[in-house]
Amino acid sequence: MEESLYYRFGGEKTLRQLVEIFYDKVARHPDLAPIFPDDFTLTKEKQFKFLSQFFGGPDLYTRAYGHPMLRARHLRFPITPTRARAWLACMQETLDELGLEDRIKQEMMMRFTYTAQHMINTPDEKD
């Protein structure tokens, strides 16, 4: 049986690095920063726990908060196609900085892309 993606990319240590680098980018991104809190401490911890189980590691998020219900938990935030693309761009940059193997990055981005598209709940404003 193949090892889960969580363990193939380096487990907890790599995931903590990913979350730190990623949210530093989000905090500076003009399309993303407005929908996030000023203090990222809880956001980072929730993301770490969620991604742990999302990639086949320990089910930390469910143990702490119950079923992720990802779309429902994000409905209060206006997630536009532009914001989804910005989120994915920040994540791609993060994965590149971590120096992960290409096939692992591709597998992660495929899962992130599907999820980001699923989170869109607001159309982009027309000019």
Task: Write down the CATH topology.
Answer: Globin-like
Shape: globular
Strand content: under 5%
CATH architecture: Orthogonal Bundle
Keywords: Heme, Iron, Metal-binding, Transport
Protein name: Globin
Family: Belongs to the truncated hemoglobin family. Group II subfamily.
GO molecular function: heme binding; metal ion binding; oxygen binding; oxygen carrier activity
Q: In words, what does this structure look like?
A:
- There is one protein chain.
- Helix 2 crosses helix 3 and helix 6 packs antiparallel against helix 7.
- This protein has 7 helices and no strands.
- 65% of the residues lie in helices and 0% in strands.
- The chain is mostly helical.
Summary, kept brief:
It contains 7 helices and no strands. The protein has helices spanning 5-8, 11-28, 41-54, 60-65, 70-74, 81-98, 102-119.
Spell out the key features of this protein:
single chain; 127 residues; mainly alpha; Globin-like; 7 helices; metal-binding; transport; metal ion binding
SSE blueprint and pairings:
Layout: H1 5-8, H2 11-28, H3 41-54, H4 60-65, H5 70-74, H6 81-98, H7 102-119
